[in-house]
Amino acid sequence: MAEQGSQAAVLFADVSGSTKLYDTIGDDAAHQAIDLCLKLFSALTVQHGGRVIKTIGDEVMAVFPEASKAGAAARDIQLGINEMAPVGKVRLGVRIGMHQGPVMEKAGDLFGDTVNLAARLTEMASRGQIITSLDTVNLLTPLQKMDCRQLYSIPVKGKEREVPICELMWTDTDDATQVVAQRASTDAGNALRLVYRSRVLTLGADKKTLVLGRDNTADLVIPDRMASRAHCEIEQRQDKFVLADRSANGTYLSIDGDREIVLRREESLLRGHGFIALGQSRATATELVEFFCE
What we know:
With 294 residues, the chain is of the alpha+beta class. It folds into 2 domains: 6-187, Alpha-Beta Plaits; 192-293, Tumour Suppressor Smad4 (Sandwich). It has 7 helices and 19 strands. The termini are far apart.
């Protein structure tokens, strides 16, 4: 058991593509397929010396005594899911985030900044990615470190300095590694196209930032009572597009294949295709901004 203030590595593994699976093959079959994924996550966690803390929908939260064991489990989870046959023509994937630091355990659950950061890194991961912090990479074995590449830094609530994040590569061949790199590039893209009603805006070579909000001074005016005057901002950072919430009610982000997340004074990477809703969930919002990373 992790005692209060003790060091541990926290890992989240989240099934990607589950929403499409439910829509394609129905609730019962989809539930069985996702349950199989969760059992795989749990078995590999135990195999690598970890312990499952809880299952949240299509996500498992686990804890390990050290980062190297969490990294080994994360790699095997990705390999295991990659080898699964498509379910109803839908190929499932997994997004993984992990971080080592002080944790507090109470009534069988874990709490603290380490847990929050691990969860945040999972949200930033694309399908097929393992995202971790540079601090955690420094705790890995020399061989594991060779499979890591540094990405960029992100602001984290409660921390004065931005946190550098890294990707732990899990493929065995140069060809497979190249495919991962190409996919990441495609997900991010060189331009971001936003579509709102009849307006189309592009963020890229000529324009690097864009403000969405209710005020007439915003680059994209969204006349929604739940929206703040300057609700959120999208910024291009190198070849990435980052959505930053600046609002009172939060910014709701839906990316194809993943469940909706809400940002509250936080940031998230935009990838692929999805929707942004200001101040309320996409399910209830009447004003939606659609985005395409191209």
